[in-house]
Amino acid sequence: MKLFRIITFAATLLVAESLSAITLNVSQAVDLALENSEELVSAKNAVEQSGLNRQIARTGYLPGISGSVTGMWRLPDSETDMGMSLRMRGVYMAGITLVQPIFAGGKIIASNKFARIGETVAKEQLRQVRIRITANAEASYWSYIAVLSKLEMMNSYRAQIDTVYSQVKASFEAGMATRNDLLRIEARQGQVRYQQEQVANGADLCRMALCDALGLPLDTPVTVEDSEIPVERASDLESYNLDSRPEMQLLHADIEAKRQQVCVTRAEFLPQVGLQAGWSALGNIKLDMMQQDPSGNYVPVSNRINANGWNIMVSLQVPIFNWGRGLKKVKHARLEVDNARLNLSRATRQLDLQVQQAIANVRTGEELVRSAETSMRQAESALASTTESYRLGLATITDLLDSQAQWHTSRSSLIEAKAQLRIHIVDYRAATARI
Asked: Lowest mean pLDDT: which of 37-46, 99-108, 184-193?
């Protein structure tokens, strides 16, 4: 009964683990990273906010309409020398006002251009975030493939060593091999087990790095569809356009924003013309006084005052003298435009250098892959020849172990070269905004 409960518990754990595990390829990894990225959601929100800002700026061309209502009670009543009494109990004032800017020195136009620039900036920043997330997901995916390939290679290498150990042990027990041969293989077994543990730990770290890039919990089991790293040769490395980079578009937008800031600064010192129209009403003001009737007698008379009407007003505000503050502010803003142009020039050189370095890395990576493939073929041929010679008694155990070690080194170098080439290509695509 106890054994049954243990088996049931183990089966439950296996089912739970299988339910939480995911299997994916590089395309699915990128999609998952984009789907789970909080940074990408924030960038999308920024794009939506910039669209709202543009709509808000557009309302600057439209008139503003406001209404007001005021009630007032005043105690006591106001008395005058002429015997009149002004009663203001429940006095009301109401009105509707329309204000239409006619000329604001170009500030409204500049504000709308600012809003459009802000929308462009938000979209380019979103594209920049998408490129960065995609490149990180692809690089993490291929790094994980590489370490899994190394782990598989280490398992194969250990199987080779274990096979040789079994053969030598049998020969030693039969008196056909020396203890020194057996000890040498046991030492090599220890080295291989140590290396195997290192690779296994590295595989777990790479899995966690991949989970982090995909926005998954770090303990998520991940199974990949690719069993090894395909060799991809890059083409048309020289044909690229820096203006396709989000960074370049952001720099151009910064220059344009600085230009509009000059217009806004200048607008502060230009005439301002506005139109104001409205309707207002005033009522419930009571005036008590004594008035002479036709008989010559004074009788109390009460008049109630109510009034309403339309009003139109045009205002003109002209700055006359400000001690040169306007000219200095405009000059300051123009210098900011010059600085933005200098930033563009400097950043263009840096981005071009970044692309050139990416191209050089890809070409170096391709050469390393070709060299590693050649070395791997030679190591495989040497191992096969040494294994056959050892079987025929024409090679020592040391020769066999050295051939196996050379095969292991060549195989490891080939895996690393392929992985690095894939990552270099990802970096190149990111540097040229082709992701």
From this structure: 99-108
Q: How many angstroms separate the CA atoms of 413 and 378, rounded? A: 13
Counting other chains too, the contacts that 38-44 makes at CB distance below 8 Å and 24 or more residues apart are 38/215, 39/129, 39/133, 40/126, 40/129, 40/130, 40/133, 43/122, 43/125, 43/126, 43/129, 43/130, 44/126
The residue ranking higher by pLDDT, 263 or 302, is: 263
Q: What is the pLDDT of residue 18?
A: 43
pLDDT tens-digit profile of 318-352?
888 888 888 898 999 999 999 999 999 999 999 99
Interatomic CA distance for residues 40 and 33, integer angstroms: 10
Neighbours of 179 (CB within 10 A): 8
From residue 283, alpha-carbon distances to 67, 219, 286, 295 in Å are 17, 76, 9, 32
Q: Name the one residue in this structure whose structure tokens are 């557009």.
A: 58
- For residues 247 and 129, is the Cβ–Cβ distance under 8 A? no
- The answer for residues whose C-beta is within 8 angstroms of residue 285's C-beta and 6 or more apart is 86, 87, 88, 91, 304, 305, 306
For residues 406-433, one letter each, b for 16 or more C-beta atoms within 10 angstroms of the residue's C-beta and e for the rest, the string is bbbebbbbbbbbbbbbbbbbbbbbbbbb
* Average pLDDT of the segment spanning 132-152: 95
